[in-house]
Amino acid sequence: MKKILSTILALALLPLSIYATFSPTYEKPVNGEFASPARIINMKQKTPFAFEIQAGSDIDALSFYSNPAKMLGGKPAEELASYLAGQDLEFWQNNPQLVQVFSSLDDNFPSDTGDGYYLASIRNYFANMFLSEAYGDARRAYAVMNSMPLTDAYPYNPYRILGGDTYLSLEMYGGKIENNFGWNWDVNMDYDGASSLLNNTGGRMSVDARANIAYALPLNKKFSLGISAQPMIRFQMYIPNEALISARMNDEILYLFTDDLMFGTGLSINIGTMYEVDEELAFTIDFRNVPSFRNYSLLPISSIAEGNASLQEDDTIYYIPPDVALSAFWDRGSYHLQVEISDILNQAIYDRFMEEQKFDYYSIMKLSFTYDIDDNLSLTARYRYRAIGLGIRYKGIKAELTTKLDRAALGISFGWII
What we know:
Elements: H1 2-13, E1 21-24, E2 45-58, H2 59-66, H3 68-72, H4 75-85, H5 89-93, H6 96-105, H7 116-129, H8 137-147, E3 167-178, E4 181-192, E5 203-218, E6 223-239, H9 241-250, E7 261-276, E8 281-288, E9 292-299, H10 301-305, E10 312-319, E11 323-332, E12 335-341, H11 345-353, E13 365-372, E14 377-384, E15 387-394, E16 397-404, E17 409-417
Parallel strand pairs: 1-10
Antiparallel strand pairs: 2-3, 2-17, 3-4, 4-5, 5-6, 6-7, 7-8, 7-9, 8-11, 9-10, 11-12, 12-13, 13-14, 14-15, 15-16, 16-17
Helix pairs in contact: 1-11, 4-7, 6-8
């Protein structure tokens, strides 16, 4: 099924690919009313100004920021040693840069004799000397850091070796919904880290300003149809994992700036329908990101260093894969339950075209339950993307703590509608 869905999308984009290169890109999921635009038909709300701060990380990543040599010199170094010890003689003869990494860290690294003795010496080196106390965590950490771009030592799920998923965001927004029409403005400043400090993607820093405009109309007493559009202007910069590790190991923030700066525009469209069983229960089907495109101009870091800050057109058109979401909303007095099934189609496309984005069945189901203690105070429990959260809202102030089910992690958020 995943292959069929991804093939359909590829065929749909084939005529357009004559004129441009298309590449999937990932952005954090959009929540709220504009992701299910048919729901605004029953809403009336006004938000003059609000902000929300979110921060979180795997414990592994927090430990890395505290003591990078110890974290890299442990399990990541063991995995690297196991991988390299399993390579043949041809591998080492074809990778002189990798040999130079270890020779620069240790004069005793075996010299190439061009025979089986050389290979046996290398395997003995990684089985004994490299993992010894005498070698030390610091040298092992530099070996991991410098060999990352030269080897495929880590699997596509390296968070089981060393986690990451550090994120920090500030969102400011305001808007209004009434008479079947809704709009808002939304400014976001984000750092989204990779799921592991060892994977091939790294993290991304971004700043964008966007607007959401939505309209819903009743089809009959039970059905309604809605559409929302989201134009934006955006800046982003990728931060490869090796750049992040190098910056922390050397205590130098400038090491982060290795990739091009990207300035561009984007547009996303969501279409949805809602069926209201009664005043307490409703179901929605939403077609999200149909389409959703980003186009950028590039400012190379190298040109800034040379004093030639000129923009270059990026011929690639980036798209966020479309998705279909099925949701149920139940509201009875003080109790509110939301169930969503989504991230099937888009994950199938990511899995087909982006090797580092693997299909995760545990991200399909989302649950949220809220209990209103009174008009001013409510409690919420939720599950999304392998994370559980407990939140509280008092008047316009809300706060939440989250953790993951599959690894040690901590997340916090704080928001205030002023």
